[in-house]
Amino acid sequence: MEIGLKKKLEDELVLKVSRMKPIIKPTKPHKHAGYHELIFLSKGAGQHTIGDEAFDVVPPTGFYLGPGQVHCWDFSKIPEGYVILFKEEILSLYPKAQSYLFDFPKQFNIPDESDFFHLLDTFFAEFKAGNEMDFLAAYLNLVIIKSSSIAQQNKNNTPSVTKEFAAFRQLVNEHFTEIKNVESYADMLHLSVKKLNEICKSAINATAREVIKERILIEAKNLLTHTNRNVSEIAFELNFTDSSNFVKFFKGQTTLTPLDYRSRAIG
């Protein structure tokens, strides 16, 4: 059976905050490409299957889905809560929150006495009011930090794979402009390329090369959206040999040219 692909976050958007749909119809296994998803439920019951694991829905609870994660719902009681969809680039000013994403369990319990849902109520209201993206990014940063703190309380230990992947992501964040090959990162981590790819596959179902490309793409999008630099200047800053190679890379990742992306992002 082919896994369906749902696109709930449009190409030009980096964030969407919505209420959970009040329906109990089972969904078919599907995945969401290109963005992260945090789901927080204050009411509901049933089952949430993520990959090959089935989780009972016992609110208050949270779920995290990474890009490309396959999941489906089977509710027995109408759910209430929030769904936050976001692309990693929105957290460019919050590297700690970025790193937290890859240490999230798929499911975590939220304490009953927590004021966490009050924060989500406010975040949703600010999103619906159409506030500036920098303002909303700060709220998302806070939600991720508080969620991570809650999730860590649910965990007894951190798997070594998570630690190794976090170390790789940190190195990529520090060196992505000058180092673009997987071999160099594997050497710095004292790992084989095969082992590094296994770690990445286990953590986010992507290759090490895809992780590096994604980090370069995030920076390219930030420069296109938040600076007036032309394509040649951005290509130089990201250490591409020339602007045509940068355009080819960007279009291969997004299907858009850098200038097309800039016009859509800026509006």
From TrEMBL:
Checking Gene3D superfamilies in the record gives: Homeodomain-like, Jelly Rolls
Entry's InterPro entries?
AraC-bd (IPR003313), Homeodomain-like_sf (IPR009057), HTH_AraC (IPR018060), RmlC-like_jellyroll (IPR014710), RmlC_Cupin_sf (IPR011051)
Domain annotation HTH araC/xylS-type: ranges: 166-264
Keywords noted in UniProt: DNA-binding, Transcription, Transcription regulation
What is the protein name stated in its UniProt record?
Answer: AraC family transcriptional regulator
